[in-house]
Every structure is written in C-alpha cells, then in structure tokens.
Amino acid sequence: MLKDIRKIGLNGTVYLIAALFSKGLNILLLPIYTKYLTVEEFGAVSLLLLFKSIMLSILGLGQIVTIKKTFFDYKQRNLSFKTFFSTIIIGSSAIGFLVSILMVFIGPAIFKSFFDGIGFFELGIYVLVSCFLLIPYQLLLKLFQTRNESIKFSLFEISYMGVDSIISLILIIYFSYGTLGRTLGLFYSTVAIVLVAGFFVIKEINFKFELPTFKKTLIVGLPVIPHSLSGFVLNLSDRLFLNKVYNLEKVGLYSFAYQIAQVVDIISLSIIEAWSTYFMKYVNGEKDNGLFIAKFSIYYISIIVSGCLFISIFSKEIILIFFSKNYLEVYYLIPLIALGYAMKNIYYVSNQQIIFKERTSLLLLSTSISALINILLNTILIIYMDLGMLGAAISTIISFLVMSIISFKNGQKLFYIPHYTKKMVIIYLNFIITIILIYFFSDEVIVKTIIFILGLTLNVWILPEIKSVMNILFKKLKWRS
Asked: CA-to-CA distance for 108 and 102, rounded, in angstroms?
C-alpha cells in the first residue's frame, strides 16, 4: 500500500507539472494576454475555448472513459488491447468526420444564437478542425495515463501547450491579430502535435475494426457525451447569459475570475488522474481496501480545499501583483467560484465508483440536473434580478453543490466506501466561515495571513491519523535534539 501511495504521489506530481504547462500555462500567461488583448477580445477567446471543450466531448464519443476499465479487463483475460484501441480510433474518427461536416452547415446558426459577436467561418472553423484532428491524440493520452506512462503523457501535453503559447503570443504581440492570433495558435499547434502523435498511435493499433466491440463501447461511452455537455453548461451558460444580457467585456471579466479560481481545479484533476488508475486496481481484485480509498479521499479534499482557501483569501493581492488593474473589480468573485470548485471535488471522487460499475448514465443524471438548475438560476439571477457576475458565481456554487451531492449518493449506492463524511463537512464549513471572516472583518494582509494559517491548521488537524503522525515527528525531533 505504501508503495502505491508513493506511485500515486509521483504520477500525480508528473501530471501536475504537465497540467501547469498545458492548462496552467494559460493562467501563467494571463498577465500577457490581459495586456495585449482587450477585455472584449479576452471574452471572445474564453468562449472559443469553451466551444473547443464542447466539440472535443461530442467528437470523442465518450470513448476516453472506456479505455481504463477495458484495459484492465483485457489484461486480466490476456487479450490483445491493440484491436480494441484500433477499433475505437477508427470508429471515433469516422463518426467525428461526419459530425464535423454537419457542423460546417449548422455552425453559423449556432454561433449567431450562442456566441454572439464571434464569426464561425472567421474563427470557429479553426477550432472545429482542431477538435477533429485531436480525436486520436486524446485517446492516446488516456492510454498513456492508464499504463501509468506519466512521462510520455506530460511530454506531449507540455509540447502541445508550449507550441500553442509561442505561436499565439507571436501572432498577438508582434502581428496584433488579437482573438484571431489566439485561434490560429491553437490550430497550428494542433496540426503539429497530431503529426508527431500519429507515429505513436500507429504503434498502438493493428488497423482492425470490430463493429460489435465498437457498439459495446458506444453503450458505455455515449451517455458520457450528454454528461460532458451538461458539465460544460455549468461552465458555459453563465458566460452565454452575460454575453446576451451585457457584452463581451463582462464575459472577459468573469472569465478572468473563473480562470484564477480554476488553478486549484487543475491541481485536483492532476491528482485524480493519477489516483483513478490505482482505484481501478484496488477494486478490480489486485487490491481491496475501502478504508485506504476513504483516507485518500479525505486527504485529497483537505489539500484541494486548502488551496482554494489560499487563492480566495489573497485574491485581491494576486491580481494587484500579477495582473492589470482593469480586472481588480472582480476579485470578490474568486472566493465564490473557488468554493464551487472546492465542492466539485466530491464529484470527482465519486465518479470513480460510478465508472467502475459502468453506470455512466448516472454521471448524466448528476450533471444534467445540475445543468438545468444552473440555467434556471442564471435566468433568475442574471436576467430578472440583474445581479450580473455575482449572480453567475452564485449559480456556479449551487450547481456544483447539487452535482456533488447526487454523485456522492449514487457512488455510495453502487460501491460503498466508508468515507469520513463528518470530517469533509467540517473542512467545507471551515472554508466558508474563513471566507466570511475575510469579507466582513478585515482587508489587511497580516490579518488575512493569520486567518489563513488558522484555517489551514484546522484542515490538517482533523485528518485521520494525523495526530499519530505528528506525535512520531515530535518524538524524532526531540530525540535528535
């Protein structure tokens, strides 16, 4: 077990480094983007990146979730995984091509209705083609993760985002292409990485296609598409409402706050990616220890919520130090969005139980209900109550909370794990109370620091077995002295 913990930590660290360069680099480059892009252009870029996420989910047909479970099944039965991988590559690419052709005809109408102010053939078409080309690349990355080949995974992701960032910055800074520069950077970097990844994909397939196998994967994978789309509604609908009711400037400001809060989500996803493989090992018979899974979950929640706590308390200082003062007005939104992301981590943990039982339809249940609630709340808070960005942030918190509660209950019904539920509740209450103290009682950095240390101490102290670990450390320090 200790060996697995070390491997999880090692792979999680590698994935984190990759995430910081792939997803995190966009955040690290925010000071440059916010300097050379207008707030409106930044808002347009945010919407185009969301369009990319949506299209990747649709074109991928949910096949990513089938790889991990199938890989271990094939391994136990000594079957060739190459035929399976070849089948989902060929099948997904073929259907993805047909969907992309359809989008060429209906894309302008979709952009006019939902991405007002952004031209489909001027900008959206580059994103669409990039998403189609990325289908085999995304499946290859998931295969690397499943086999714990974190170095390969990281090198590809770092290279992809590195090339993307370099091209985008050149086009934005030196050629003043604005939104088009960021879009072309995405397109050209996609072409480059797909050409390189193609050599690796060829080694992993045998160019065979089994229709019965592909049909079975669709049964598991297709429910993931509306699940993913519902998930993107949670991230997209608030900005669509802001764009319709207000303008792209509001979208840019809100997207900025969203990306700052999203830093912790990048870290949490890196840990979950490393953990998910070991979860499958534990529940597939190689390992069997529900208590260990529960301990990992509470430690994971504590780490992520503590990160959210830091970003929330010092959000104003982070903007003043690293970013343009044009974005200072949204610092108060960051703690609210961070709270939503903190709650979302229960959803990440519970998903492993649901995927293991191949009940992906339950993923759709949690996200679809949450998406409907999100749309309803955005309608009420943004349109009728005119709360603007604050209304969007409140919608995010409530929607993520509902999604996490539903996923947690479903996960426990399918595969019970003795979670430390009371300790989780204390950690979240600690977060909320700490943020309230900051909002209403002090804006001084020294006071903020003291409150953060107290909140962090409580998060650590209530963890299972932490007192025993601390006693051992104190004894060792005392012995050495």
From this structure: 11
165-206 tens-digit pLDDT: 999 999 999 999 999 999 999 999 999 999 999 999 999 888
Q: What average pLDDT score do residues 455-467 get?
A: 80
| Residues 276 and 164 reside in one and the same domain | no
Q: Whole-angstrom Cα distance, residue 432 to residue 440?
A: 12
Q: Is there a single domain that holds both residue 218 and residue 231?
A: no
Report the alpha-carbon distance of residue 265 to residue 342 in Å, rounded: 8
Q: How many domains does the chain have?
A: 2
pLDDT of residue 224: 67
332, 392 in Cβ contact below 8 A? no
Residue ending a domain, choose from 206, 222, 238: 222
Show the domain range for 206. Answer: 37-222
Residue 343: inside a domain: yes
CB atoms within 10 A of CB 101: 10
Residue 134, classed as helix, strand or coil, is coil
**Residue 71 confidence (pLDDT) above 90:** no
Dist CA 258 CA 260 (whole Å): 6
pLDDT of residue 480: 47
Same domain, 267 and 355: yes
pLDDT band of 477, cuts 50, 70, 90 = very low
Cβ atoms 263, 311 nearer than 8 A: yes
User: Of the residues 222, 243, 268, which one is the last residue of a structural domain?
Assistant: 222
Instruction: Give 438-447's long-range contacts (Cβ < 8 A, gap of 24+).
Output: 438/312, 438/313, 438/335, 439/332, 439/335, 443/316, 445/314, 445/317
pLDDT in tens, 428-437: 999 988 888 8
Residue 255: enclosing H or E segment and its boundaries? helix 248-261
| Distance in angstroms (rounded) separating the CA atoms of residues 407 and 351 | 7
The reply to whether 251 and 396 lie within a common domain is: yes
pTM: 0.72
Same domain, 181 and 298: no
Residue bearing the bigger pLDDT, 454 or 359: 454
DSSP secondary structure letter of residue 289 = -
